[in-house]
Model the fold of this input.
Amino acid sequence: MIGSRIKQARRASGLSLRELADKVGISAMSISKYENGQVTPNSSILLALARALNVRVEYFFRTIQVSLHEVEYRKHAKLPKKILRQIEGDVIEQVERYMELEEILPVSPISPFVVPKGLPARVNSYDEIEHITNHIRDAWDLGRNPIQDLTGTLEERGIKIIQTNAVHDMQFDGLAAMVNGNPVIVVGSEWPGDRQRFTLAHELGHLILKERLNRKLEEETAANRFAGAFLVPAAEAYKELGRKRTWFEPRELCVLKKAYGLSMNAWLHRAHELGIINDATHLELIKYFRKLGWHKQEPCDKYSREEPQVFMQLVFHALAEDLISESKSAELLGLSITDFRAIRKVDHVKTVVNQ
Ligand SMILES: [Zn+2]
Done:
């Protein structure tokens, strides 16, 4: 049991047997024996392993085991296996804490995820995706206005949203997967808010569309269309931009980005797929953006990042009702007791939570 936990933590940290052995100051053979369960490490070794692997000792004794299924990665082809394993390890670790907390709470205030009823069984064209996103907005009582807190909206519907900073170099956008029958969407924590929102909506698209897409449609294109349509319904896009346009002022797109949390580049794309601008204008605008470097870094204010709140809310709920201790709360949030106490004192402004 402890052995497989050590192995899981080691893989999540991206360390080889030898690298971990060097960090702890024991042989790779010993580590291998611990991982295989041939030898049980004593408490001082466990402490050293926990330090080297950047986990708490409790991690090795956790009984909940989760694994990811039906994993869908954005741009996964570019990512080395080792990095994927690190991301998966971090996600699994976070989901384990989540599920441990859910087991402690007598009644989870979050209902399980259900795909809204009445969606078509088959999607035969990209345009049909517009009806699907409108249907979902109706089923979830979202109206047609901008969705301010997308993370909270999805969490309320039973989708776990996990942010990861397992990789710092921004190679990773996000992924969707199933964990014990429940959907999880993972998003890189370091991206600007508009990019995170597009990723969240894109991954939701995968969850909703995966079994419905006609085989002649490309799933990535479909998930992107879903994201644009979910964040800005067609009717809203027409209202904001008009039916036909020959050019956009950048400032106009800045304003819309701020209102909808959709990037300026994504607005261009959205206007094109809805026929508001033609191919030639779209191309001209893309060239113009490229010339100014706006395809990489957009001008105007950054859209603030998405912040998962539900997990922390539930931890404090459990603490308030005496279901868990202060140190358990800290462990669940992945914080030292000192950092946890700082957060518990609500007048403390800066939070350091890596949920
Ligand atoms: Zn995708």
Observations:
- The chain has two domains: 1-63, 69-324.
- The chain has 16 helices and four strands.
- The beta strands are 68-73, 160-164, 174-179, 182-188.
